[in-house]
Amino acid sequence: MGTSLLLACIGLLSFVGQLVCDQHQQQQQHQQQQQQKQQQQLLLSSAAKEFVEKLYEYDSLRPKIVYSPYSIHRALTMTSLGARGLNAEEMKEVLCITSLGDSVHSLYRELTQELSSRTDVTIQIGLGLYINPFYSIRPDFSESVARNYFSEVAHFNLTADGGAERPINDYLLSKTPSLTWRPLIDDSIEPDTSMILVNTVAFNGAWRTAFDSRLTRTEPLMLSSHSGKEVEMMHGDMTINYKRDTLNRVDIAELPFVGDRFTFFIVLPMSVGGLKKLGMYLFHSNSITE
């Protein structure tokens, strides 16, 4: 009896030890997977940053060009799903995603899911690719785009009621209902248009420290040393992270949103004419002094 009980205890301890060992291995595997995922996310962030730096340098001479780095890199990376051979290699090189391989698409899927699932802020994202009916669309391309980018791929309809732009606008507004304007203007799609790539992002969040609306007043916003525009400006007394960079002559303020997951950074040149120089500084990570 004693021997049987001893053997049973040894067997139980062996089972518990194996169970603890298995749990430890699972935890290690999970940690390794999380670390690998974080490294890939950092690579994706670096790729988007590097691409936007190149784009900014190319587009800096064109006035009033405003774009979202996340949106434009994501949209163009999506189109690379349809590229083959040399075209695919060139697109990956330009987008700086060669080292990520095919994992870049699943990374964007996970990032989009994470952004869309936030509860402390509202983030709505619409992305669509529309092709001239003259060209065919491969089903596997449409499936990959829908799976990884939650995007619509379709032919645009030149005979649609209200114009070819209307179905596209309706789709984008269904994805980003917070928008109050139609992304595509009438008659912007012509019979010889080959492709339309559109992206919309709507963000709505509450400041962690709210501004008092009673203090908002109209003041001049200087666009250059010679011209300005009257705009409504918010005012308030609050404690925020603030930096004065005297070397690069910029002031930096951080305004976090509720939840502290998202932050609005304001980088303001000390001189009215310092905006162009500021753009050069922002795309060189070591230029802003600590």
TrEMBL record:
Serpin domain location: 49-290
Keyword Signal tagged: yes
GO MF entries: serine-type endopeptidase inhibitor activity
Domain of life the protein comes from: Eukaryota
GO cellular component: extracellular space
Signal peptide: 1-21
Keyword field: Signal
Pfam families: Serpin
Sequence similarity: Belongs to the serpin family.
Identification of the protein by name: Ovalbumin-related protein Y-like
Organism phylogeny: Eukaryota, Metazoa, Spiralia, Lophotrochozoa, Mollusca
Originating gene: LOC106075109
